[in-house]
Structure formats: C-alpha cells, structure tokens
Amino acid sequence: MRMFISVIVLAVAFSACSPSKPKVNDKDALTRLLEGNRRFMEGHPVHPDQTLERIRELKKGQHPFAVIVSCSDSRVPPEVIFDQGLGDIFSVRTAGNVIGDYELGSIEYAVEHLGCQLIIVLGHEQCGAVSAFLQHESDTHHDHIQSILHYLESEPEEKALPDSLKHSLYTAIQANILHGVRLLRTSEPVLRPLAEAKKLTITGALYQIETGKVVILDSLNDLASHDSIRQ
C-alpha cells in the first residue's frame, strides 16, 4: 500500500513539471531570445509574464523554452537581457559560467523532462573569473574559487589560439564560452546523442555589457574577428 501511494505521489510530482504545451523548437526559441535582446538593447523591453497571475499559472507546471548557462555576475541576468518572463528560461548560473556535474544534471533535467531543445552557453565581457585566470591568481587562492580557475586551465580552445591572442581577456572569455559548448555537445549519456540527432541545439553567445547586445558564437573562427572589432 505504501509503495502504491509513493508511486502515485511521484507520478503527480512528475506531471507537475513535465511539459503539457507543444515544445518550442530550437530555431523559434533562438529567434524569441534574440528578438527579446533587441528590445532590451533598444531600450523598449516589454517585460512579459512578470505578474502575480503568471506565478499562479506556473503552479500547474513550468514550460521553459530554452536553457541559458550563464555567469552569476549581477550585470548579466538572462531574463532581463533577453526580455523574458517567469517560466520562460531555465537558468543555470555559476561564476565564469563553468559547468560541472551538478550543472550538467540540471541541464539534462531541463532537456529530458521539460522538453527544452535549445541550450545557450552565455559568457560576458569583463568576466572576473576569466580575468583572474589570465592574471595568474590561481597561486593566491586557497578557497573554492580555485576550482573555477582549474576549470579554465583545462580549456583546449585556449591552447589552440595563436600566441598573439592568448593574453587577450576578450578572446579568453570567448574561448571559455566555446569550451562550455564543446563540453555539452560531447556530454554522455543524454546531450551528445540528442545533439548529433539534431534534436538539440547547443550554441555559445557573448553578452556585450556596454551595448547590451548578445552575439552568437559557434566556432574558434569567430574569435579573431570579434576580438579585432572590440579592441
């Protein structure tokens, strides 16, 4: 009897967070985000779905249409810079937008159980974690910040850069974004098969603090061009 009740409870809990609405495909999701960013950048946000009524609607379950993996920096709140509302974005935030096992588990949950088909790894200008790495502050940290710096040290994208760009903060930030994209695209057992089957899009993006614009980044070929523009 107890087992039967437990099964019912789990079923009810799962149905409350499972998508009952049609899934938003990756292209529509990206378009929706970029249109929202344009509104924010131009100073005309509409602040959708930010009411008490919306919160009450979400008691029935959440249906985010995209996963945003971003930095914890207070200047980079995804819902604000993409002009989205409650229940629209599944947000995973860490300093330096680093991705470990806990973050992967959260992302997998959003993809498997909430139906998200788009993941964006969002970095930003003036990232303190990347700046600390370039300044070789890893020798001075004896706290948990050290684990963030170790993550940045492991980036194959950074090692592939020309020597002329390796000490550029802006370029290192972009390399960190692409490192996160690569990590997610090769993550087993959930994300890689979906990405290879074209059922899941994983891409990188850079937030320019001065302009408010989000720029999509998808390969190392983008690094030099964007770096030259900003320098």
Topology:
Blueprint: H1 2-17, H2 26-41, H3 52-58, E1 66-71, H4 78-81, E2 89-94, H5 101-114, E3 118-124, H6 128-134, H7 145-153, H8 156-159, H9 169-185, H10 191-196, E4 201-207, E5 214-217, H11 221-230
Parallel strand pairs: 1-2, 1-3, 3-4
Antiparallel strand pairs: 4-5
How does this model look, in words?
This protein is α/β, with parallel strands linked by helices and 231 residues long. It has a single domain, classed as 3-Layer(aba) Sandwich (Beta-carbonic Anhydrase, Chain A), CATH 3.40.1050. It has 11 helices and 5 strands. The protein has helices spanning 2-17, 26-41, 52-58, 78-81, 101-114, 128-134, 145-153, 156-159, 169-185, 191-196, 221-230; strands spanning 66-71, 89-94, 118-124, 201-207, 214-217. 34% of the residues are buried. Mean pLDDT is 81; it is low at 1-20 and 227-231.
Which terms would index this structure?
single chain, 231 residues, alpha/beta, Beta-carbonic Anhydrase, Chain A, globular, disordered N terminus, disordered C terminus
